[in-house]
Amino acid sequence: MKPNLLMIGNGTDRIRGQLSAEFNLHFLGDIDDLAAFFAETGPSVEYVMTNGHDGVPTEVINGLPNLKIISCYGVGYDAIDADACAARGIVVTHTPNVLNDEVANTAILLWLATSRKLVQADNYIRAGRWPSEGGFPLTRTVQDRTVGILGLGRIGQAIADRLAMFNSTIVYHSRTKKDVEYLFYDNLTEMAADCDVLICITPGGKETRGIVSAEVMNALGRDGILVNVSRGSVIDEPALVAALQEGRLGGAGLDVFDKEPIVPQALFEMDNVVLQPHVGSATVETRQAMGDLTCDNLIQFKKDGTTVTSVPETAHL
Ligand code: NAP
Ligand code: 8YV
Questions:
Q1: For residue 178, which atom of ligand 1 is closest to its CA?
Q2: How far apart are CA 164 and CA 292, in angstroms?
Q3: Which candidate among 120, 233, 242, 263 keeps its CA 20 to 30 Å from the CA of 269?
Q4: Is the CB of 19 under 6 A from ligand 1?
Q5: Tens-digit pLDDT profile for residues 272-315
Q6: Cβ 51 under 6 angstroms from ligand 2
Q7: What is the set of active-site residues?
Q8: The CATH number of the domain where 156 resides is what?
Q9: What pTM value is reported for the model?
């Protein structure tokens, strides 16, 4: 008999196909009476698959006393309490590296689109303004800029690799200095003051909540551009809206928001922002690679109790 696996979110056709060959799938969204499910089936569920948005609610973890592994479709696992899982002996896996290039491309795309006002220029043509009003106003160059990377990890490094094409001066801030040639700042505000562009690509969670504060945005300044492909929580969102409204920050390219899918209405009215609905990794090819790794972790664990890509907090289990 196939073991039970609880799916949080529906996954893709390909994920469901791979997992249903190995597991008996239950979909959290289809369960009407959760208490009855936990009472009848909960003790036999050892496997959970989820995603970076939904994570695993505490009531689900508590309702599955013999849970052994949570496989997350996404590299960011701030929606899962990995320390609590480690304490209970539950392995958590995620999908590092397979999405580095895609998310780095998205960061560069957002910076270019924001600086060169791609969306606004497109709208200008569509609104029929070119013949009547003439050429579109000049924008700001992306060449020879100083670009700060907040979080020089796997994706941050892929972003840095791409910045060479723009002859950027690359600087970075993280908790620890890395063995790289770029200038390290141990103070984020000081780095922002020296940057034309700040690209955020740290993990989310308690430790990074609001670290891009009003002070950091003021330091980046009226010509500065803020790009966020990390988590919405990393930026103080009300302070961001105020800084843009008051012209203290030049512009923002945002893939992520604090209360997704809710985006502050005030941003809709601004012509110095470019907005995306959390699609940093969302291509057919990359989502397929992420899905395959998500399944590989579960299937390998079922076979021999090991995983491909555990999160650091549970790597010792
Ligand atoms: P990673 O390799 O772990 O890199 C994270 C970097 O952030 C590390 O260099 C780390 O360096 C730094 N960092 C951690 N905590 C910090 C803090 N409190 N202050 C300053 N720097 C800190 O992770 P990754 O694979 O590059 O992914 C990064 C994040 O990107 C994910 O966690 C996820 O939230 C986000 N992401 C978003 C999308 C999207 O669709 N928009 C897609 C994929 C990933 P230190 O340890 O030295 O501080
Ligand atoms: C996905 C992401 O949107 O990997 C991450 O951390 O934010 C994205 O790739 C998401 O996690 C998919 O569930």
A1: 47
A2: 31
A3: 233
A4: no
A5: 999 999 999 999 999 999 999 999 999 999 999 999 999 999 99
A6: yes
A7: 231, 260, 278
A8: 3.40.50.720
A9: 0.98
